[in-house]
Automatic annotation (TrEMBL), chain A:
The keyword Hydrolase does not apply. InterPro entries: ARM-type_fold, eIF-2B_epsilon_N, eIF2B_epsilon, LbH_EIF2B3/5, NTP_transferase_dom, Nucleotide-diphossugar_trans, Trimer_LpxA-like_sf, W2_domain. Its main location: cytoplasm. Residues 473-484, 516-529, 740-765 have a biased composition (Acidic residues). SUPFAM superfamilies: ARM repeat, Nucleotide-diphospho-sugar transferases, Trimeric LpxA-like enzymes. It is found in: Cytoplasm, Cytosol. Component of the translation initiation factor 2B (eIF2B) complex which is a heterodecamer of two sets of five different subunits: alpha, beta, gamma, delta and epsilon. Subunits alpha, beta and delta comprise a regulatory subcomplex and subunits epsilon and gamma comprise a catalytic subcomplex. Within the complex, the hexameric regulatory complex resides at the center, with the two heterodimeric catalytic subcomplexes bound on opposite sides. This is Mannose-1-phosphate guanyltransferase. It comes from Remersonia thermophila. Residues 560-749 form the W2 domain.
Automatic annotation (TrEMBL), chain B:
Belongs to the eIF-2B alpha/beta/delta subunits family. Component of the translation initiation factor 2B (eIF2B) complex which is a heterodecamer of two sets of five different subunits: alpha, beta, gamma, delta and epsilon. Subunits alpha, beta and delta comprise a regulatory subcomplex and subunits epsilon and gamma comprise a catalytic subcomplex. Within the complex, the hexameric regulatory complex resides at the center, with the two heterodimeric catalytic subcomplexes bound on opposite sides. It holds the Pfam family IF-2B. Keywords: Cytoplasm, Initiation factor, Protein biosynthesis. It is found in: Cytoplasm, Cytosol. This is Translation initiation factor eIF2B subunit beta. It comes from the Eukaryota. Residues 125-147 are annotated as: Disordered.
Length: 765, 430
């Protein structure tokens, strides 16, 4: 860090004009890159059981070759590779490679080191480890081991550097590729839609969130701070290619936040959210040309393979032969063929890649497929849009459609491999086997814990080998919501993108409607885009107002995160009030505050939750559900408010939130709403009104609400909207009149003032 | 080449600089990958190859001429295979191989070779009729003052070195010196040493030739372009640009620019610099939209474009689109002039790949952001065209204008028959 500071000072002293100090330039010249070669995901299972993702063949070339070549083409000199699972495979692959072996004389990198972290469970652990090692000297490029890109980074690096020199807090640049607003295969394939809120003039990132079709929350909540930036764009049309340009400060940020795991969902989101705390500025570089994508799941793998065939990835195309020992040539019909390939007459191969020493017998049709080396394709075989890796055997008459057949797997004569099937290493399908199409089969010879799987003869036929591979489910992921919950990983772990069979919550608004008494009539349109810009902006603005004024009425559509906060908070408080054993409200209070912080709930939402919780408790005492005679209204209200020590204080401090008349009126309004809407139990309006009056009286006598507050509420027009509200309000007339009289008796001067205030209010309306 | 000086992206200049620090294999590899990644293209390939082979001659360990030839050939083969659609690489390798053979023969029998090479040189110079290229002469005059001092030095190495220069420049002065001081009995080591520097000088000359070719071709501009001409230039290359600017200094003509890419609104309009310079010289330019050139062909007097390579049958490898222009001009019997320096003449027939054209990435036609198009269309963007020989009328080389019938003699002058298929025997290895 100190070095960094010194250098910054030197640059500033020089006026950062072209004539840079020599020493400075020398150090700047070494461009470093960090490759994260483990993603801690299982989207490529069952293939990644035996091979790391970055060594899977993408158009017959291990994926990491693309990444390394990309770095080399951008003049990177030092590379650090973080390996996790299968580190020995990756290391031996690199060491055996003529080009990348660090001892080799021809390697384009001055240095290539492997770093192994034993107890790493996430990418966050890697980066925290990197911070400790202090091997990073300046700006560096952080990429994943599954990156395919051809973009020149020079200009982006220069911009990053200029920004950093102008402001030392500009420490991070994310490289993004725009894919337009129309449906795009690369956008479809990624499963999770990243949403970036960007300042279009400076490129500064303001907020980051992720959306996916399976989440119950369909709205994006904008941070109110976003609005202070004037202009901003919300973009969900970007492919995140995982190329980050970082200064070492970024690593310090990782170290500070020991719980960050994912570079996007946790780190980017978190750092942007806590901008005021850490003061760091993150930038996005949105590219409109060039190619960059990560083979981050099977669908992206599929998509990138097609892009390579279509030459979008130029120069990373088969006939560039960038990997040593490859000899692809472009021949007719859009095929790329290596040496010693035998394609018999009478077979038809189009738009495909065929590796060396593969034979294709007569009568076979191969379209849009990638065939590895030494494969044997029999007669009358049909292969469409599939990936056949090295040494696979497809016997006569078989058909393989949009599937992956891994190394040394054998598909027997006449087999049918339908769309989306994954046939892993060494699996043998006996003759005439038909694999299921729904859901597509994943067949592997090993189980999750790498033990040989027991062959399932019904699936692979007699004499076959392999069993169905079950995707392990994360236990702790699936029980945190009541409905069937899906990890977006479900979308990403299959070769085909399909929402079929997944229960996508059509609208979760209704399930909370009884608790949130606002008109939650949120427009359901625009869902296809993941978010609707106008709506989100509306919501965010509502949130901002909420901080100052409380809920602004029906137009203030509550967002889903507020709903879940509301729900949890009401339940928590209500349970605490109900709890016969404990007499202490402190823990409930603590829990509530925790929830509030976690959800970043506004004052208005808190007020609403507290009002509902206490109203519910009072209603429960007033009219128990089992039909037993309840307490009378005043007693029920008193019991609800005073039975627990600290509850009154809590209502006063948190629920009302202050001594101001407006806040008190809001709380009274919230109580009224809670009772009127039936959120607190089934009470007919007159009885609810009775209870409200009792509650207000209790609160008045407990000094939580003052008469000014109650009177302000009484004057507020919002309390008279709708029949039930009116009916409930009517019952409080007695109380209000009593309060007014009490006022008059106390002092006539104050009354005059009150009248003035009331007049003002009337004028406003 | 690259606009940013502080950039990390490897460029030709950086590469050539790095040759001195890197071992041979490493420089070889970095060059190969620059070629494969298309970070070096076109004319730069020739320069890069020449620089690299110069380096091979200087650095590699070789004990005999055959050994050296073998090495150059193997390195050259690997370079040529790295970029099968850049024939100039092979041309430069062949030139260097021929050069080594010449020097070796000269070493073996100085007198014989002396006259032979001398006549060779004469041949080449006689090929350039009328207007001898100004640069070589100038170089010759700057080199001549050195000659006496070199002659007075007794070391065999330097004498043979200087002798080479003498011969290549002017024969009559050279001959007495040759007779006087060629020590035929020098040891093997000395001869290797001598050969090394001779070959390196030879490669320097090839480099000079590559660098000066454009200027030399431009020297013929006023002969080819007449006052009042309407000249259509299809996607002018650097060579063509220089040619046109030179012509504009002497002639008033009208230039039609065709084959322009749809301009990116943010960027400078295409060929803005060229048009400015032409306008300054009083030459009007007209930009033709993509297909508009057909309509203008009847008005045009000649069509000019630069070639990437000339094959032995007279066919041309050009940037894509030129073929349309050539075809249109051919239909209207308008002369088609291809600007092609001698180092682009390739003693091969075009391969199938060349005839089919090299494929680039589709982004110049469809943006990757256009999702439906990316999904549904097969977009083939050929970046090179092959023009069959019958469509070309004049090959304007740095040695002067030629017709197709004289190409064979140019090839024979520049390449040795044994080097023509230099890369074939290595094909098996890969």
């Amino acid at each position: 860090m100190s070095k960094q500071g010194g250098k910054g000072g030197a640059a500033a002293a020089k006026g950062k004009k072209p004539a840079k100090p020599g020493a400075d330039e020398k150090r700047e010249d070494v461009l470093q890159a960090v490759i994260l070669a483990d993603s801690f995901q299982d989207r490529f299972r069952p293939f990644t059981l035996e091979t790391p993702r970055c060594l899977l063949p993408l158009v017959n070339v291990p994926v990491i070759e693309y990444t390394l070549e990309f770095l080399a083409s951008n003049g990177v000199q030092e590379v650090f590779i973080y390996c996790g699972a299968h580190h020995q495979n990756i290391e031996s692959y690199i060491r055996e490679s003529a080009r990348w072996n660090p001892q080799s004389s021809v390697t384009p990198f001055q240095k290539l080191d492997f770093i192994r972290v034993n107890d790493a469970n996430s990418i966050g652990d890697f980066l925290r480890d990197l911070d400790k090692r202090a091997i990073i000297t300046g700006d560096f490029i952080l990429v994943h081991g599954d990156l395919v890109a051809n973009i020149p980074l020079d200009a982006i690096l220069a911009k990053h550097r200029a920004r950093r020199e102008a402001n030392r807090d500009a420490c991070f640049t994310v490289v993004l590729r725009s894919v337009g607003e129309q449906p795009h295969r690369a956008a479809r394939a990624r499963g999770i839609t990243p949403v970036f809120v960007v300042d279009p003039t400076t490129g500064r990132l303001l907020q980051y969130d992720e959306m996916h079709p399976l989440q119950s929350e369909r709205y994006l909540q904008l941070d109110p701070a976003v609005f202070s930036h004037g202009e901003f764009e919300i973009r969900s049309d970007l492919v995140d290619c995982g190329i980050d340009i970082c200064t070492p400060d970024v690593l310090a940020l990782w170290s500070e936040s020991f719980d960050y795991e994912l570079p996007r969902k946790n780190f980017l989101h978190g750092v942007l959210k806590d901008w005021e705390l850490n003061g760091k500025m993150l930038y996005a570089e949105i590219l409109d040309s060039g190619y960059a994508a990560r083979a981050s799941n099977l669908q992206m793998y599929d998509c990138i393979s097609q892009d390579v065939l279509d030459r979008w990835t130029m120069p990373f195309v088969p006939d560039s032969n960038l990997v040593h020992g490859y000899s692809y040539k472009r021949v007719k019909d859009g095929n790329y063929v290596e040496h010693r390939v035998v394609i018999e007459r009478g077979s038809k191969v189009t738009k495909s890649v065929v590796g060396s020493a593969t034979t294709v017998k007569a009568g076979s049709t191969i379209t849009g497929s990638i065939i590895g080396r030494r494969c044997k394709i029999g007669k009358n075989v049909r292969i469409e849009n599939s990936y056949i890796w090295d040494d696979a055997v497809i016997s006569d008459g078989a058909s393989v459609v949009h599937s992956i057949v891994a190394n040394a797997a054998a598909v027997g004569a006449g087999c049918r491999v339908p769309e989306g099937s994954l046939v892993s290493y060494q699996v043998r399908l006996a003759d005439g086997v038909q694999l299921p199409s729904k859901p597509p089969a994943r067949i592997s010879t090993v189980t999750d814990d790498l033990r040989p799987a027991e062959t399932d003869a019904r699936l692979v036929g007699a004499g076959g080998k392999g069993a169905l591979y079950e995707v392990p489910r994360d236990e702790d992921e699936s029980d945190d919501e009541d409905g069937p919950s899906y990890d977006p990983a479900v979308l990403q772990s299959s070769l085909l993108y399909s929402l079929e069979g997944l229960d996508i919550a059509a609208s979760s608004v209704s399930s909370f409607a009884s608790d949130s008494d606002f008109d939650s009539d949120v427009d359901d349109g625009d869902y296809d885009d993941g978010i609707s810009t106008a709506e989100s902006a509306d919501m965010g603005r509502g949130g901002e107002f909420g901080l100052g004024e409380g809920p602004a009425g029906p137009s203030d559509a509550p967002s889903k995160s507020h709903d879940s906060f509301h729900n949890d908070a009401v339940h928590g408080l209500h349970d605490a009030l109900r709890d016969a054993a404990g007499n202490d409200f402190d823990s409930a209070k603590l829990e509530f505050m925790g929830l509030r912080l976690a959800n970043n709930a506004s004052d208005a939402a808190m007020r609403r939750a507290i009002a509902v919780a206490f109203a519910r408790r009072a209603a429960e005492l007033f009219a128990p559900e089992d039909g037993a005679p309840g307490l009378e209204a005043a007693k029920a209200a008193g019991e609800a408010l005073t039975s627990k020590r600290g509850a009154v204080k809590f209502v006063k401090e948190v629920g009302v939130g202050g001594d101001e008349v407006g806040q008190q009126a809001e709380f009274a309004l919230a109580l009224q709403r809670a009772l009127a809407s039936g959120a607190s139990g089934k009470l007919e309006p007159p009885r609810a009104g009775l209870l409200l009056a009792a509650l207000l009286q209790q609160l008045y006598s407990l000094d939580v609400l003052e008469e000014d507050g109650i009177l302000a509420w009484w004057e507020d027009g919002r309390g008279e909207e709708g029949e039930t509200m009116k009916a409930v309000r009517e019952k409080c007339r007695v109380l209000v009149e009593w309060l007014e009289n009490a006022d008059e008796e106390e002092s006539s001067e104050e009354e005059e003032e009150d009248d003035d205030d009331d007049d003002d209010d009337d004028d406003d309306e | 080449m690259a606009p940013s000086q502080a950039g990390h992206v490897p460029t030709l200049d950086n590469l050539i600089k790095s040759f001195n620090d890197l071992p041979l294999e490493a420089s070889m590899d970095s060059l190969i990958f620059l070629l494969k990644r298309r970070q070096i293209k076109g004319d730069d390939c020739a320069k890069a190859t020449a620089h690299f082979l110069r380096h091979v001659v200087a650095k590699s360990k070789w004990t005999s001429v055959n050994h050296l030839i073998e090495q150059v050939r193997s390195y050259g083969t690997r370079l040529a295979q790295a970029a099968p659609l850049e024939p100039v690489i092979g041309n430069v390798v062949r030139r260097v191989l021929g050069l080594i053979r010449d020097e070796a023969a000269e070493d073996r029998n100085a007198d014989d070779v002396a006259s032979e090479t001398a006549s060779d040189i004469q041949d080449i110079q006689s090929l350039a009729p009328g207007a001898p290229p100004p640069q070589p002469l100038q170089r010759a005059t700057t080199a001549s003052p050195v000659r006496p001092t070199l002659g007075s030095i007794t070391s065999g190495l330097l004498v043979s070195n200087s002798m080479f220069n003498l011969l290549s420049v002017a024969e009559p002065l050279g001959s007495p010196l040759t007779g006087a001081s060629t020590p035929m009995s020098s040891a093997l080591h000395a001869s290797v040493h001598a050969l090394r520097s001779e070959v390196m000088d030879g490669i320097e000359e090839i480099l000079d030739e590559i660098n000066q070719a454009d200027d030399q071709i431009a020297g013929f501009a006023d002969i080819q372009i007449h006052p009042g001409d309407y000249v259509l230039a299809y996607q002018p290359t650097k060579t063509v640009e220089r040619f046109l600017i030179k012509a504009a200094s002497k002639r008033r003509f009208t230039l039609l620019l065709a084959g322009l890419q749809v301009p990116d609104p943010s960027a400078e309009p295409p060929y803005a610099a060229l048009r400015k310079r032409l306008a300054a010289a009083g030459v009007q330019t007209i930009n033709l939209a993509s297909n508009g050139l057909m309509a203008y062909i009847p008005r045009v007097n000649k069509v000019i474009f630069g070639a990437k390579a000339v094959y032995q049958n007279g066919g041309l490898l050009v940037d894509s689109g030129c073929c349309v222009a050539a075809q249109a001009a051919h239909e209207y019997l308008k002369p088609v002039i291809a600007l092609c320096p001698v180092y682009k003449f390739t003693p091969e027939d075009p391969s199938n790949e060349v005839v089919r054209g090299e494929l680039g990435d589709p982004s110049s036609y469809v943006s990757y952001a256009n999702g439906p198009a990316v999904d549904l269309l097969d977009i083939e963007n050929t970046v090179t065209d092959y023009i069959p020989p019958e469509l070309v009328d004049v090959y304007l080389t740095n040695l002067g204008p030629q017709t197709r019938h004289h190409l064979a003699s140019i090839l024979a002058d520049h390449y040795k028959t044994e080097d023509i298929a230099f890369s074939l025997q290595f094909d098996e290895d890969s």
